[in-house]
Amino acid sequence: MKKLLQLTLGIVTSIGGFLEVGSIASSSQAGASFAYQLIWPIVLGTIVLIFLVEMSGRLAAVSKLTVSGAMRDRFGFDYFVVPLATLSIVIYLVLAAEVGGAAFALQLVTGISYRWWAVPVALFAWFLLWKGPFALVERWVPLFGLVTLVFIVGAVKLGPDWSAVAHGLVPTRPSHDKAHYWFLVVNILGATIAPYLMYFYSSGAVEGKWDESYLNINRFIAVLGMSFGGLLAIAVLVSSAAVFYPAGVKLEGYDQIALMLTGALGSWGFYLFAASLFIGCLGAILEIALAVAYMTSQGLGWRWGQDEEPRQVPRFVLVYTALLALAPWLIVLGISPLAVTSLSMALTAATLPVAIIPFIVLMNDPVYAGKHTNGWIGNVVVVFTIVMACILAVVTIPLQLLGGG
Amino acid sequence: MHIVRDLLDKQLIDVNWQHMGRIDGLTMDVPPGEQPRITTLCVGGTVLTRRLPGFVGRWASALVERYGVRRGVPFRIPWSKVMRVDRVIRVDVNSDESGAMASSHWVRDHIIDRIPGA
Fold this sequence. Notes:
Radius of gyration of chain A: 20 Å
Number of domains of chain B: 1
CATH topology of chain A: Amino acid/polyamine transporter I
Number of helices of chain A: 19
Shape of chain B: globular
Shape of chain A: globular
CATH class of chain B: Mainly Beta
Helix content of chain A: over 70%
Structural class of chain B: alpha+beta
Number of strands of chain B: 7
Strand content of chain B: 25-35%
Largest sheet of chain A: none
Number of domains of chain A: 1
CATH architecture of chain A: Up-down Bundle
Distance between the termini of chain A: 47 Å
Oligomer: heterodimer
Order of helices and strands of chain A: HHHHHHHHHHHHHHHHHHH
Number of helices of chain B: 4
Largest interface: A-B, 27 and 29 residues
Structural class of chain A: mainly alpha
Strand order of the largest sheet of chain B: 2-1-7-6
């Protein structure tokens, strides 16, 4: 039973992958512009994420090392510093986007501009990390996160064309706006397969003191947790497609996206959308701030742990405190949250290769994976992901210019 | 033993089972006609920043020399203090009472303790 409770770790990781502001934005844009045609990148991202998350958990359970710790161990400081530096730069924009998303959710409910909410949101997130143990993030975020199930209710009530939905599972060529189509594909994959998910999940597993007896439950958590998120992202896309595509609406801001559920659920739909956006973004803020603190501390050998008193792990606390202190200012300045989101997702895609390549080595090295090295299916998926990540990294900036906005 | 594979970059654990950094560098003694011997393990300071390439390394080293709590001087552990070499390296050092935790203690005393509610 105690092991089964670890499912919440999978759910919170999944929220950071699928229900944060980047995924909500890219899924709804995809639905509005291409109806159900872009479900396949969500499915592809989900499958890849299941494999990578499972590997991160397996590595932690067998070696008691996190992904970041193992990267420094196996590849040395000279390599480790590359994913650390790229993540630190990109993550600032991602974090700003999440703060913007949560702040916008508060604007929807209160009518007070998101610019005023950015600092309170960052402060609230910091307070939760400062006061709370890991269980606060791990148990409460998924519990409140259940409100996002409203997207599934909404999608079903809207009565979409289910055969068209099924067709969207298979990749097809775009009939119009090719650049925008591929831009959205890259954005969806970049929003879904984020390296910080792996750093967070493996650290959570080490904080939960996993050993080899957790290997089965780890597989279960990876499949169920990531499918939960993937299904919700599809529901967002389907709702958006059913509402916006026939009307030919071009989404330009979160205020339009927020109306996605009002047709199906009335004013409740509006408030539940705001609640979902808020909890998804808050979950992502907590997850990202922790992931960077984990990665830095583990890579440099500092003391770390969300269950420790802040005085015992000062440098770990300093990292997330500094990040959250810097995060709100782009939003306070009034830069459009949707623009920041779109750029941050594209840049995440560009940094993917350096984060994924270590998996193929670590997961095949008995020093780290023991008797539980990758099978051929796992290796095929990692190699495929590396190739895909390299392509994404090359095309993401040109596509941002050609197909964005 | 393979110095780079088994020692460099590994986690250091002190006598109280606390993390105390990673092995950022080593010093060796190479007497003529004898096997080279590891003399000390180095943690932090310019030993780490000098491993960065080109101007980034020089720049980062200048920064830690100027602003680092230990002015860029790495903490050195004599090889005789090494207790166990495994996936982590355990050493007979009390890190909190040595200079190894200087920057951690600085952050604790000057930042963490000043946050209300600490």
